[in-house]
Amino acid sequence: MLSFFLDGVPDPDAKPGTVQARGGKPAAGPPTYLHKPYADNNCGACHENTNDIFARAKVRQGICVECHGAALVEYPQMHGPVASGLCSSCHTAHLSQTPHLLRYASPRICTQCHELPTLSEGVAEHRSAAADCLSCHSGHGGVDRKFLLVHSAATTRPAAEGQAPQ
Ligand code: HEC
Ligand code: HEC
Ligand code: HEC
Ligand code: HEC
Ligand code: HEC
Asked: How many Cα atoms are found within 13 Å in the side-chain-facing hemisphere of 132?
């Protein structure tokens, strides 16, 4: 029971820098990105009780914005799940094989909630299962409602004939 619970879980008493080896994953393979407080063994920053093994997994409510409060109001137009503090729908709290501690790479990170056939047809990538959504969109928000990274020919629909580009 005890070892089952601890399987793949880092030792909270391990020296900083050694947690990565606790996952039982070989050193070879894709890089693993560690969340700083996790790598620093600062488990108590998020977990209610790091001594009681059964309480260990309990995480305080709204924990992410205690340190990342600025993320909620980063852009004039915020993405719903970010503004609602649903950080864990896109991010892991400990470590990830994907940069920025994302749960999945693009497009899966987005297609968790957005189905390709529902996206506007004007953008060819909206019909491609291999599209890198993050090459055009920010995950958190933007200056416009489409959360576009840049306003260029690549990310902006061509203006209608005779209409000035925005
Ligand atoms: C940045 C906040 C944060 C830090 C730091 C952190 N955790 Fe977690 N931990 C979480 C969250 C969030 C979950 C998922 C809880 C859930 O799904 O309800 C979790 C889950 C767990 C679980 C449950 C099993 C699992 O992996 O889902 C264990 C055990 C655990 N953490 C141990 C640790 C230990 C040991 C450390 C320190 C090395 C640590 N955590 C550091 C936020 C954190
Ligand atoms: C105790 C403070 C603390 C808490 C709580 C915390 N973080 Fe962090 N987080 C950090 C620090 C420190 C960094 C590293 C910042 C840097 O290097 O500039 C970081 C970095 C990140 C990054 C960027 C990683 C990258 O490589 O780009 C993400 C994403 C992130 N945190 C998500 C979360 C999520 C999701 C939660 C809630 C589960 C959370 N954080 C809770 C302190 C915290
Ligand atoms: C809809 C998915 C999604 C949600 C929800 C989300 N993020 Fe992110 N986050 C991303 C993506 C994607 C990136 C990578 C940068 C980018 O493309 O915008 C990122 C990057 C980050 C970074 C590193 C870059 C930076 O801006 O400093 C931090 C820290 C972070 N997120 C924290 C959070 C916190 C805290 C929450 C909850 C309030 C949250 N995220 C909710 C998708 C999300
Ligand atoms: C957890 C569910 C969830 C995930 C994951 C998610 N979204 Fe969203 N997204 C929403 C919801 C809900 C809305 C509607 C509320 C709003 O406009 O913010 C939305 C709205 C949007 C909008 C604005 C639509 C409009 O016409 O105003 C864009 C653009 C968008 N998402 C892009 C993305 C991208 C890119 C990703 C991947 C990084 C992503 N979303 C991941 C839930 C999600
Ligand atoms: C080549 C750049 C590009 C890529 C890649 C891209 N988008 Fe878009 N996206 C746009 C543009 C431009 C708009 C604005 C379209 C409009 O105003 O008609 C948009 C609009 C959206 C919207 C708002 C609603 C809509 O359909 O207009 C959502 C949601 C969205 N994209 C999600 C995604 C997701 C999810 C992915 C990955 C599967 C993705 N986008 C990939 C450029 C892109």
From this structure: 5
Question: Looking at ligand 1, which atom is closest to the CA of residue 5?
Answer: 29
Q: How far is the CA of 82 from the centre of ligand 4 (A)?
A: 9
Residue 27 half-sphere exposure, CB side, CA atoms within 13 Å?
2
| Among candidate residues 116, 135, 137, the one with its CA nearest the CA of residue 127 | 116
What tokens does 89 get? Answer: 């729908």
> What is the per-residue pLDDT across 40-79, written as a single tens digit (0 to 9) for each?
999 889 988 767 666 567 888 899 999 999 999 999 999 9
Residues whose CB is less than 8 angstroms from the CB of residue 116 and which lie 6 or more positions away in sequence, other chains included: 107, 126, 127, 128, 129, 131
